[in-house]
Design brief:
The complex is a heterodimer.
Chain A: H1 2-30, E1 33-34, E2 41-42, H2 48-54, H3 59-66, H4 68-101, H5 107-119, H6 122-133, H7 138-145, H8 159-183, H9 187-195, H10 200-211, H11 213-228, H12 232-236, H13 245-254, H14 259-291
Antiparallel strand pairs in A: 1-2
Chain B: H1 6-29, H2 46-53, H3 55-88, H4 95-107, H5 110-123, H6 130-155, H7 159-166, H8 171-200, H9 203-208, H10 216-224, H11 230-271
The chains are: A mainly alpha, B mainly alpha.
């Protein structure tokens, strides 16, 4: 039984010290005041427990509600994450559908082709769009050559580039759950609907889409949740006008060195994320129960 | 055999073109003779030469590989232990908190994980360097390992372990001789996942790295912030090549194993 205790204790303690404790520190610092010291906040642990508790306040959170920047950043993160999740669904669904309809022997290869980019560096995949979307980039060269535009389009450093970046990097997360749902689908159901007088299109909307609902929901959450806190994509593809909360947190911490405010931003980001995460968990649980 | 409709062919073609064209463009332009990444000026491998003469990149690459190997190994051990505890451990005090701590890092935004770990390291006065990056990477990738391994543990037949125990094996022997060989593929894919996560990570490493140790993603990020550069294209090409070869050979090996397992099963049926 000693062994069992050790087996539990080692990973447990690791996570307590390196996951839970750091998070409690963020919570604590978000309630502290900024100070011109190292570390740049007060009170610190050295001031004693009494001072630690009595000097905590919600100033940083009040500051966040008073400054427009943060409201705008939260709202714009939500908007960007929602729009790009929807776009990813539009791009991903037809691909997943095509995969599910492909001949059996192609599917493992197609599957691997979807997963392969996921193993490739995220940073490199985002970077690959910088050369394509810039003013003198390949996309503009192509469009000019085709005679569609006379002046180069400004795409890089705008929200459009951020949408493209999110759709591109998170596409596998959308395709895989939808493909899994479509793969299980019994095609005789569509045939039955067509026999009963549905057109192919109607059968698709009335049978296929509702039956792949779980895949759509799972895929959307898998894109939405990480997109909300995204930092790399808005900072490389977005412009100075692109407000996303991950970027604000980063700048608050590294550029302004305001740790208490950065911590408060983190706490609120997490509170916003709790809702979609809980909904996602529920959806997964329902699905598992339905399968049993 | 069913034929694909033109709609499905189009969506698959466009979809995979979208997934792969940007990377192909990146690779093609790494062989461009011009410093201007968007203007083609003939074939050249000079950027690869420049890359291998760039000490800063080589140092960073070395740190990155070191961190990835150490942290993914620790993460695999800890993650496998955690998976075993979650699936086989029964009830114990604080089990809910434990499983919460395993799943939370998977959905936690990287900026928050990075920020919180940095605040911890500063709080306890740990100098930032290779050690702190290893600690950070081990912590978040052990959760991924644990999810991968526990999904394998859930599906396998427990009576095999019980049989080993009945036949006189100690719990540790039954784990080593029965459980581990069965879950080995999951443990290996967990290690690979942890390794690539560590190799890839920019955000958490930026928070936890100090001036004494920089990783490759941090170097790449600060270089590409200033714009596109052919040297980075060359570096990216090498990284894409390594990953592609790795993933394809891993999938070939697992395919071979599956075929062999099928053969064994058939042979077993025949003898039975």
């Amino acid at each position: 039984m000693m062994r069992r205790a050790a087996l539990i204790a080692v990973p447990y303690l690791w996570l307590l010290v390196l996951f839970l404790a750091p998070f409690l520190i963020v919570l604590k610092i978000s309630l502290s005041d900024a100070a011109l010291a190292i570390p740049p906040y007060t009170p610190t642990l050295k001031d004693g427990i009494g001072a630690l508790i009595s000097e905590l306040d919600f100033e940083n959170f009040v500051f966040l509600t008073e400054d427009d920047l943060y409201w705008k950043a939260y709202l714009s993160s939500l908007r960007i994450a929602l729009i790009s999740t929807f776009l990813t669904l539009l791009v991903g669904y037809p691909i997943a559908y095509g995969m599910a309809k492909a001949p059996e022997e192609w599917r493992p290869t197609l599957m691997m082709l979807v997963i392969l980019p996921f193993w490739t560096s995220f940073l490199i995949r985002v970077y690959s769009w910088m050369g394509i979307l810039s003013n003198e980039g390949l996309l503009n060269q192509l469009l000019t050559w085709l005679g569609l535009i006379n002046e180069p389009l400004t795409i890089l450093n705008t929200n459009t580039a951020v949408y493209i970046g999110i759709v591109y990097t998170y596409l596998p997360f959308m395709i895989l759950p939808i493909y899994a749902a479509l793969d299980r689908l019994d095609s005789s159901l569509n045939e039955a609907a067509e026999d009963l007088g549905c057109s192919k299109m109607q059968a698709f909307w009335l049978v296929t889409i509702p039956l792949s609902k779980n895949g759509i929901i799972a895929g959307s959450f898998l894109v939405f949740i990480p997109a909300l806190g995204e930092f790399v994509i808005p900072s490389l593809l977005g412009g100075s006008g692109t407000l996303m909360i991950g970027k604000v947190l980063w700048e608050e911490f590294f550029n302004n060195r305001d740790w208490p405010v950065a911590s408060a931003v983190a706490v609120i980001l997490l509170l916003i994320l709790v809702i979609p995460i809980v909904l996602f968990q529920r959806n997964q649980q329902k699905q598992q129960e339905a399968e049993q | 055999m069913r034929r694909l409709s033109w709609f499905n062919v189009t969506s698959l073609t466009l979809g995979f073109a979208f997934l792969y064209l940007p990377m192909i463009v990146l690779i093609v332009y790494s062989f461009n003779a011009s410093k201007l990444v968007t203007v083609w000026a003939g074939f050249s491998t000079k950027w690869y030469g420049e890359l291998f003469r760039n000490e800063a990149f080589l140092d960073a690459a070395w740190v990155t590989i070191k961190v990835a190997v150490i942290s993914s190994t620790f993460a695999t051990v800890l993650g496998t232990m955690a998976a075993y505890v979650l699936v086989r451990g029964g009830r114990f005090l604080g089990r809910t908190l434990f499983s919460g701590m395993i799943y939370a890092p998977l959905v936690m935004p990287e900026v928050i994980t990075g920020l919180s770990l940095l605040l911890l390291f500063i709080g306890i006065g740990l100098d930032r360097g290779v050690l702190t990056i290893v600690l950070a990477h081990t912590t978040f990738s052990m959760c991924y390992v644990s999810v991968v391994v526990s999904s394998r543990l859930v599906t396998f037949d427990r009576s095999l372990e019980e049989a080993a125990l009945d036949l006189g094996a100690s719990p540790w022997e039954s784990f080593r001789l029965v459980t581990l060989p069965i879950i080995a593929p999951a443990v290996i894919s967990g290690w690979l996942l942890a390794f690539t996560l560590s190799l890839d990570d920019l955000v958490i490493a930026s928070f936890t790295a100090g001036p004494s140790a920089t990783t490759l993603p941090i170097k790449i990020f600060s270089a590409v912030r200033l714009g596109v550069s052919p040297e980075i294209n060359a570096l990216s090409t090498i990284m894409i090549l390594i990953v592609t070869v790795g993933v394809i050979s891993a999938s070939l090996v697992s395919k071979q194993n599956a075929v062999r397992a099928q053969k064994d099963a058939r042979a077993a049926e025949r003898t039975a």
